[in-house]
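Pasting as-is:
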Amino acid sequence: MAENEKSITDKATEMADQAKAVATEKFADLKAEATEAIDDLKAKASELVSDEKINEVKAQAAEKIADLKEDANEAVEAAKAKAQEIAAEASATIDGLKAKASELVSDEKINEVKAQAAEKIADLKEEANEAVDAAKAKAQEIAAEASETVAEVTEKAKGFWSKLFGGK
């Protein structure tokens, strides 16, 4: 997320730098045009008007250039301010989203782990009950077999002792 904040700040700075470059380029173009216009006016003025008129036109051109420069600087500053404002808003939004995501992730993760644990415990209880039931059934089966075996042995022993000692 910090990388995104840096990226947004970098983009805002890049936008401001681009706006400044465009304004500087426009200013240079306007200055070149103004200089060219002044030179043209000088040439025409030297033919048509006095030095006083030339100085007046120069002053007006210089004033116009100063105004254009000021406007360009204001545009650059406004672009920088807007970029910083956007970067600040983006940063605040990102911070809010981070906090919300952390909150959701931790609550959801806890609930998920609880659900998984409850499910696992239920499965283990079921398996334990099945094992106990199976053990009981096996014990009853063994007890029944043992009882049958005891009865058979007792019967055979009676027959053996009877034959041995002359009984029926």
